[in-house]
Amino acid sequence: MAYSEKVLDHFANPRNVGELENADGIGEVGNARCGDIMKMYIKVDNDTITDVKFKTFGCGAAIATSSMATEMIKGKSINDALNLTNTAVMEALDGLPPVKVHCSVLAEQAIKSALSDYYTKQGIDPEPIVGKISHDDEV
Amino acid sequence: MEKKWIYADNAATTKLSAEVLADMMPYLTEIYGNPSSLYEIGTYAQKAVETAREKIAECINAHPREIYFTSGGSESDNWAIKGMARALKKKGKNHIITTAFEHHAVLHTCQALKREGFEITLLDVHENGIVRADELEKAIKDTTALVSIMYANNEIGTVQPIEELGAVCKKHNVIFHTDAVQAVGHLPIDVQKQNIDMLSMTAHKLHGPKGCGALYIRKGIRPQIYIDGGSQERGMRAGTENVAGIVGLASALQRSLVDREERNSRMTVLRNRLIDELLTIEKSRLNGDRNHRLPNNINMCFEGIEGEALLLRLDLKGICASSGSACTSGSLDPSHVLLALGLPHEIAHGSLRLSLGEDITEEDVDYIAQSVKEVVQTLRQMSPVWEKIKNSEK
């Protein structure tokens, strides 16, 4: 099983690792039993995601997709973040081996989960906007 | 710390030794004849095959007529188990006993036989990864055709009480097969003393070539024919012999016995040094019995991290290792071996297997320990579960 150069780069030098104090939204998906948990923190200002951090327990692809996904939404509008698909994350990483596609799904869900938390904190029902969050990576 | 290149995955495969290759070379070049042919280069090849058979028999205290060449460990396991089970089914024996942590070549073979109507009993391997002879004895029934228990486990390196298990089988007149793929070359093998009826081995785990192995079948035991065709291997396993491979297997096996004990003592010291160093990492554990294990095997779990990520980072530091994490197997479940020890999924995902080579030095071992410590720390820093685990009591 071979990873692309980009996957290996994001795995070896992950961007935006850490936590955000006073985050406006925190999302967590996956479970330890399956070997993948992603936790994502976002800071929102005027509909813009001004900062994002993540922590991931998981394989090389899980770490790389988390890193790439955070890069792809940083500085973008909430709408752009909502429209980020797992396919786009995979393409940005020059692809993933078939058994690792679920990691990109998890990254997409982690962002949606953080946005969902953001809306909830704003007193807005997130489900009509964000949709249902899949907390499992068995998709 | 200067980057090194250390191969610590000798349980996966080993480097072909230069001496073994030299022994094989004539049979890859000038002596290319078919051993079944009558002219000179054919008879030379045939002679090489028979000499190899004699050498291998001598190494395990068997008769040359009891050694059958195969393509390797998986084939030997398949033949021993399927061949024996199907032969004994006609006599009303439809029960097979094995263990929960066998290699897939044994486990999946047993599952295939289950679909044919065989009853399979999986013995518990307990927390230390060792089968108990009294539990084997209790599991044996009138219908038991065969017992198959590995000599040393491929992931955690635990060594089974083969002689005791063999004695139980002998007492109850049940055929005893052992997958000795990981044990051959490291541990003493005496099929008479240990009451072994069938034994699987392969060349590439002991610095021999890939694609060649053998099955020892005790005289008087008749499994079904494995490959129909020509009369090679006494008509039991047809196909033109892999002459160079066979010569390589015999050469590698013989060479592995030279200085075996001295080598094992040296390896055990280095292995223990590495285990002790790695156990200083908090929330880590050694999997499998510490003493009854192969002299080169280390298998650890580090909580809060995932095995594949650990391997990839070790690779960046020039260390080749392996893991029982789900991500290295392509399934969602971690190693069946670690689960058989009773480890929860989330801990089993964070496993690391190091299987050292004979040329390993103390300096290498210290480099591995330092690298693992750094990598575990880095991965834990980015793990969302680590803080919680760190602060937990257990």
What brief labels describe this structure?
heterodimer; A: 139 residues; alpha+beta; Sufe protein. Chain: A; 6 helices; B: 394 residues; alpha/beta; seven-stranded mixed β-sheet; 12 strands; 13% strand
Number of beta strands of chain A: 3
| Low confidence ranges of chain B | none
Q: What oligomeric state do these chains adopt?
A: heterodimer
Shape of chain A: globular
Task: Compute the number of structural domains of chain A.
Answer: 1
- Average predicted confidence as pLDDT of chain A: 93
* Proportion of strand residues of chain A: 15-25%
Order of helices and strands of chain A: HEEEHHHHH
Distance between the termini of chain A: 21 Å
Computed structural class of chain B:
alpha/beta
- Hey, roughly how much beta strand do the residues of chain B contain? 5-15%
The helical percent of chain A reads: 40-55%
Give the end-to-end Cα distance of chain B, rounded to a whole number of Å: 34 Å
How many strands of chain B?
12
What's the total helix number of chain B? 14
What does this structure look like?
The complex is a heterodimer of chains A (139) and B (394). With 139 residues, chain A is an alpha+beta fold. Chain A has one domain (5-129): Sufe protein. Chain: A. Helix content of chain A is 42%, strand content 19%. Chain A is built from six helices and three strands. A three-stranded antiparallel β-sheet of chain A has the order 1-2-3. The longest helix of chain A has 21 residues, at 101-121. The radius of gyration of chain A is 14 Å and the shape is globular. The two termini of chain A are 21 Å apart. The model of chain A has no long low-confidence stretch (mean pLDDT 93). Chain B has 394 residues and is of the alpha/beta class. In chain B, 40% of the residues lie in helices and 13% in strands. Chain B is built from 14 helices and twelve strands. In chain B, strands 2-8-7-6-5-3-4 form a seven-stranded mixed β-sheet, with helices on both faces. A three-stranded antiparallel β-sheet of chain B has the order 9-10-12. A two-stranded parallel sheet of chain B has the order 1-11. In chain B, helix 1 packs antiparallel against helix 7 (243-257) and helix 2 packs parallel to helix 7 (243-257). The longest helix of chain B has 21 residues, at 40-60. The model of chain B has no long low-confidence stretch (mean pLDDT 96). Classes of the chains: A alpha+beta (139), B alpha/beta (394). The interface between A and B is medium-sized, with 30 and 25 residues.
